[in-house]
Design brief:
By secondary structure, this protein is an all-alpha fold. The protein folds into two domains: about 1-55, no CATH class; about 55-100. The chain is about 75% helix and about 0% strand. It has helices at about 5-10, 25-55, 60-100. The termini are far apart.
Length: about 100
């Protein structure tokens, strides 16, 4: 008749006298797991509170301005180089068409 009982009916059978049959190794493993999880949670909570108090920018304003200035200079230099290359190509084309 116990096979026909639903899982909820089986839960009613648990009481103060019920023995679960956990070994010492299982209890120690459960305790270590719970202690590890609590420790990780507390560490994470502490790290979050520190991060909320001191948000640091990954790039300072001065670094950003210097990087932007360097990029602008590089773009201008590249533009000048392209102009020089175009001029050289035009000279080569003129010489090529003059020899024909």
């Amino acid at each position: 008749m116990s096979k026909n009982r639903s899982p909820i009916d089986r839960l009613d059978a648990f009481g103060e006298d019920t023995v679960l049959g956990l070994s010492i190794k299982s209890l120690i493993a459960i305790g270590i797991t719970i202690a590890t999880m609590v420790s990780m949670y507390m560490t994470l909570k502490g790290d979050i509170s520190v991060a909320m108090l001191e948000p640091k920018s990954p790039v300072s304003k001065i670094q950003y301005e210097l990087q932007t200035e360097m990029m602008d200079k590089a773009i201008l230099e590249t533009k000048e180089d392209i102009s020089e290359i175009k001029a050289s190509i035009e000279k080569m084309e003129d010489r090529l068409f003059q020899t024909r």
